[in-house]
Amino acid sequence: MARMTQRSRPKNGRKTAGKLLSYLGKHRLVFFLVVLLVIASALANIAGAYMIKPVINHCVETGDRKVLMQGILLTALIYAVGALSTLGYTQIMVKLAQRIVFELRRDLFHALQTLPLKFYDTNRHGDLMSLFTNDVDTVSEAFNTSFAASIQYFIQIIGTLLILIVLSPGLSVVVMIGYAGMFGWIFYSGKRSKYYFDAQQTNLGALDGCIEETINGQKVVRVFNHEEKNMTEFREKNRMLQDAGTAAQRYASTQVPMVMAISYLNYAAVAVIGGVMAVHGKMDVGGLASYLVFVRQAAMPINRFTAQTNVILNALAGAERIFKVMETPAETDNGTYSLKQTEQGTWQWVNDANPDEAPCILKGDVKFTDVTFGYVPGHPVLRNVSLYAKPGQKIAFVGSTGAGKTTITNLINRFYDTDSGSITYDGINIRDIRKDSLRRSLGMVLQDTHLFTGTIGENIRFGKPDASDEEVVKAAKIANADSFIRRLPEGYDTVITGDGENLSQGQRQLLAIARAAVMDPPVLILDEATSSIDTRTEALIERGMDALMEGRTVFVIAHRLSTVRNANAILVLEHGSIIERGDHEDLLRQKGEYYQLYSGMFELS
User: Fold this and answer.
1) pLDDT (tens digit, 9 = 90+) per residue, 529-587?
2) How many CA atoms lie within 13 A of 67 on its CB side?
3) C-alpha–C-alpha distance, residues 186 and 177, integer Å
4) Which of 487, 520, 553 is the last residue of a domain?
């Protein structure tokens, strides 16, 4: 999806054009005015050239200067109307184009907000960003400069042909042969270049992917001295892009010269034949002069129309990619239970579909029953997992990488839905709970910390937008982040940029924990929450976390087994199944997988 001079053509141009025009349809009156001005501009251009015939004929026949001046003034007026019309529609179209692009970006961003996480798992972030930059910019360029101009040039082409036929049907046969040659070459070269432009797009995507991976992995590249191998790979992909681009441009670049060459031959033939006809009285001098001007001008709208058509086709290809994302099915949410707060400040589940049903108090009782799930059909990550967490219990998941620990927490959040089995929350199937209410009741600290551009206070408040300053500070103290925040130059008003590049990894993790703490959620999910924190800081955090976890249901994923020793239940997963369960002492007595993991950890500590 990266930017390029020319792109592959849209697969379904008619459908995409219809959707794009629907955005114009929201501004019918403005667009109608643009069309009127475009038609006026095109007709003025044709009428101005036609005026050569009566002006010259009157001059030759009568020699009347007054008539000549009237003809010249009328011609000037016609061209002035055309110039003003052109100025008018270009200015209006610029504003209209920016409005349409605004709406397109808005709808695209809204669509991305509603898509399931699976979509982001299967699409590169760079490709999605390209939709907002390259593809939207291409659509903007088409609306700004090409859309109205294409209509004008098309009218000029048709109008010129009609005028030529009116002026001299006989000479028009010669012109038509030239026109056929022009359009024949345009069609042939366009068809040949399309194949290479498709290859160019594919190779450009591969090159962009290579560049993106190399830039993102610079530390790894340097550590393993991989620079030369990366350079060799880059050269090869860059060469393939060069070859495809050269072949594509070889045909595309011949369109304008060939059209001009055929136009010159056409003009010469018409001049000779028309001159003979004028000598023999079969055509007047004014008509011949006007005819030659039209023939000479004929190549210009054809060339420009072809160029603008390429821009429009590129825009349609970009719009097709945008609409493809916008048409991707949104994340489904058929839940009927929502989270409501009572006057006493407690939270409860309310069935919006059945107001007569008694509300259920939010407790944080989570239960898995025979849950099977796989990110890819036929390849389950979890197999018949059953577990429960009573309100206030701390449940820990341990196991090797890929055992399914994080998947369990993803299912609790309904980032994904189970393939079979059920998950209940306070006795309610989570499929029946509205996703926004479900996620509002869950506090989550992810292994991969992400901070947003803004102050530290705003990042903590991300967990609860209406949190007071006192609540923000309290959450930071619970996460043991208050001390380092106050040492920063601006304290809680310190601005974070670049995903917290001015903070250490441990500090970013502390802020993520504070962000979850400010939510004051009944259920807390910690996915390697202390993975990037040193053991000394971890010990301090655990004391604060104990206060945070008081009375809450907590799910903990950890590689450091020291962080799960005080869990009410520890579940050991392997290949998507629970192979051991119990508390710390029980599992040590069993001398199974957990015992081996813990013993190895103990020896390393």
Assistant:
1) 666 566 666 666 666 566 666 677 888 887 667 677 788 889 988 888 989 888 888 88
2) 13
3) 14
4) 520
Q: Which two tokens stand for residue 305?
A: 């129309």
Measured CA to CA, the distance from residue 253 to residue 258 in angstroms comes to 9
121, 256: one domain: yes
Note the pLDDT tens digit of each residue in 184-234: 877 777 677 666 766 776 777 778 778 877 887 777 777 677 788 888 888
Torsion of CA 285, 290, 296, 300, to 10 degrees: 180
The 10 Å Cβ neighbour count of residue 279 is 9
**Residues in contact with 534: Cβ distance below 8 Å, sequence separation at least 6, in sequence order:** 506
Residue 54 covered by a domain: yes
Measured CA distances, 402 to 89, 100, 383 (Å):
60, 45, 13
- Whole-angstrom CA distances from 20 to 295, 317, 481 are 35, 11, 50
CATH number, domain containing residue 493: 3.40.50.300
27: burial class by Cβ within 10 Å (0-12, 13-18, 19+)?
middle
Q: How many Å apart are CA 319 and CA 204, to the nearest integer?
A: 19
Q: Give the chain's residues under pLDDT 50.
A: 1-7, 602-605
With beta carbons less than 8 A apart as the criterion, state whether 31 and 51 touch.
no
- Tell whether 432 is covered by a domain: no
Q: Are residues 316 and 462 in the same domain?
A: no
Number of domains in the chain: 2
Q: Is there a domain that residue 236 lies in?
A: yes
Structure tokens at 412: 């609790």
Which of 127, 90, 158 has its CA nearest to residue 2? 127
Distances in Å between the Cα of 602 and the Cα atoms of 395, 560, 561, 562, 594 are 21, 10, 9, 9, 12
Q: How far is the first Cα of the chain from the last one, in angstroms, to the nearest whole number?
A: 49
SS3 of 172-214: the string is: HHHHHHHHHHHHHHHHHHHHHHHHHHHHHHHHHHHHHHHHHHH
Domain boundary residue, one of 469, 490, 520: 520
What CATH number is attached to the domain comprising 255? 1.20.1560.10
Give residue 41's domain range: 13-326
Residue 252 in any domain: the answer is yes
Q: Tokens 């055309």 — which residue?
A: 82
Question: Which H helix or E strand runs over 372?
Answer: strand 366-373
